[in-house]
Structure formats: structure tokens, C-alpha cells
Amino acid sequence: MRLTHVKATIANPGNPRKTAKLTFLVDSGAVYSVVPKTVLRRLGVKPHSKRTFTLADGSRITRQVGDVIFKFNGQQGASPVIFGEKGDSILLGTVSLEALGFILDPIRRELRPLPPVLAEGYRAMAEEDRETAEQRLPAFREILK
Q: How far is CA 30 from CA 60, 74, 86, in A?
């Protein structure tokens, strides 16, 4: 399986001029992004909590969590970030991707713009406007191709 890597910039939300450019492994199985704690500390990002995470092998780890601004391909979004420790991969998770307005195309293994029709499609379904939702479905599928 081919891996997807992207270069993105992170910034301290309290001081956006403090930035770092990193190469991230885009991990569609990871909810949160992981950045080395040495980088986050250099930017002045402070953790606000600790969380315990379950890894793919079933083991559990505890890591600090903070918030950063992600910048990629002309887009910007705020997202939680895990303070990575030695041996942790630098990951771009789904929460950060969505904050930036992107999704990972699982076939082409590239980032694509997140279709803005999602919210409108869900609204139509929530209102039980089945006809409107069914009319929008082909356009939504076309965007995801």
C-alpha cells in the first residue's frame, strides 16, 4: 500500500507568527494529528489535557494534547494535536484534515477538497426532504470521484 505524505505548517494559535513546517504522514485511521512535543514546545504551544489512546495493536498510551493552527494548500484550520514522544510518527489525522477542508481519497491516496454539500445534504435528510436529498446524491458522488 502506498503512503501519503504532505508538507504542512503548524502555528501557535496564541502567537501565529511562531510556525514550523513539517512533513506529515496522512493517516486516515488516526483521529488526531501527532507532532513532536519538542516542536510544539519550541512554538510555545502548551498542553491543556492528557488523554489515553488505543493503538492499532490494542495497546494504550497516554499523551498530552494541545491546539494548533494547521496551514496547507492555501487553507487554514485549528485542530487538537497530540504531543508526540520519541518513536511516535508525525501524523495528520482526520480532525485536522476536516478542519482544513480536505479528505483523503482512499483510491488515489491524495488529498481532495472536502465537498461542502455534506452539510446541505444532511440538512435535507434531517428535514426528511428525501426528494431533495436524492437529487443532491449524484452531485455528491461526482465530487468524490
A: 14, 23, 18
